[in-house]
TrEMBL record, chain A:
<dbReference type="InterPro" id="IPR051932">
    <property type="entry name" value="Bact_StressResp_Reg"/>
</dbReference>
<feature type="domain" description="STAS">
    <location>
        <begin position="10"/>
        <end position="121"/>
    </location>
</feature>
<dbReference type="InterPro" id="IPR002645">
    <property type="entry name" value="STAS_dom"/>
</dbReference>
<dbReference type="InterPro" id="IPR036513">
    <property type="entry name" value="STAS_dom_sf"/>
</dbReference>
<protein>
    <submittedName>
        <fullName>Anti-anti-sigma factor</fullName>
    </submittedName>
</protein>
<dbReference type="Pfam" id="PF01740">
    <property type="entry name" value="STAS"/>
</dbReference>
Length: 135, 148
């Protein structure tokens, strides 16, 4: 499956790994790109029936309140579509800055890296039938 | 506080689109890295700049930012002035409150940015536009001593 807007330099690739979508953010993100990503991920979940979304931000230098809000919205949208989201790879300097900014993103699950994110999802996905209410 | 010799010329960049926001972040990062900012201070500076530049764009209807390298003793820093000629802020106290927003943001722009910088100054009045000036040093300083 290809991205909805190929070749314009403003898209973020969304990779499907089984029933998990892997989104890798890199460097400077235009506001427009972030907003488009929010819509793309929702559409991809709806179309593919993905149960998990991993957003890798290890390549992101800064997260400001705008990008933070977009990440939280992606997770909230995904939850409504029956998918869990985990944000992985936040740099320590970004975490320190977000905390001082006052943006602690309580609704967002985080993990150290993609592998830990996959493990978190794997533990969660069998519970998606409603028997295990972990949180 | 004086402008750093040899780099006293302030850089002025437009803030008129989200492409400008990206450019402003990149330029400030480059200037700060050149001044010897560490990773955490650099990240705080660029994040604060991103918040303030977005305010200039979204609430001020666009404007510009002036980037001035500074020197105080052996410590270096940078001053950023975000200037717009928009509607200004009617209730400064309210605008500085965590969680308050007149738009669709999280309301952390001004109050959050203030926590990320060493010096913060807000100059605004209804109908007269808004200028936010911040200073960030390469290291946390004890209280400022003028003339040092």
């Amino acid at each position: 499956m290809t991205s909805a807007h190929p070749g314009d330099g403003l898209t973020v690739p969304v990779l499907a790994l089984g029933r998990t979508l892997l989104v890798t953010l890199q460097g400077e993100l235009h506001d427009r790109t972030a907003e488009r990503l929010r819509q793309d991920v929702s559409h991809r979940i709806a179309r593919s029936g993905a149960l998990g979304v991993i957003i890798d931000i290890s390549g992101v230098d800064i997260v400001d309140s705008y990008l933070g809000r977009v990440l939280a919205e992606i997770a909230a949208n995904a939850r409504l579509l029956a998918a869990h989201t985990v944000v992985v790879g936040m740099r320590p300097a970004v975490a320190v800055t977000l905390a001082e900014l006052g943006l602690t993103l309580p609704g967002l699950t985080t993990a150290r890296d993609v592998e830990q994110g996959m493990e978190w999802l794997a533990r969660r996905l069998p519970a998606a039938d409603g028997r295990g209410r972990g949180m | 506080m004086t402008a750093a010799p040899g780099s006293a010329v302030a850089t002025c960049l437009p803030v008129g689109s989200d492409t400008d926001l990206t450019w402003v972040r990149q330029q400030i990062r480059q200037v700060a890295a050149g001044l010897g900012f560490g990773l955490v201070q650099l990240t705080k500076l660029v994040t604060a700049a991103s918040e303030l530049a977005r305010n200039t764009l979204v609430y001020g209807g666009g404007g510009h930012v002036e980037i001035t390298p500074l020197e105080r003793g052996t410590i270096r820093g940078v001053r950023l002035s975000f200037v717009d000629s928009g509607p200004g802020i009617h209730d400064v106290e309210l605008a500085m409150t965590d969680g308050y927003t007149s738009g669709d943001g999280l309301g952390l722009g001004l109050s959050g940015a203030r926590r990320l910088v060493h010096e913060f100054e807000l100059d605004t009045a209804p109908g007269r536009g808004t200028t936010v000036t911040v200073v960030v040093w390469t290291a946390d300083l004890p209280a400022a001593r003028p003339g040092e």
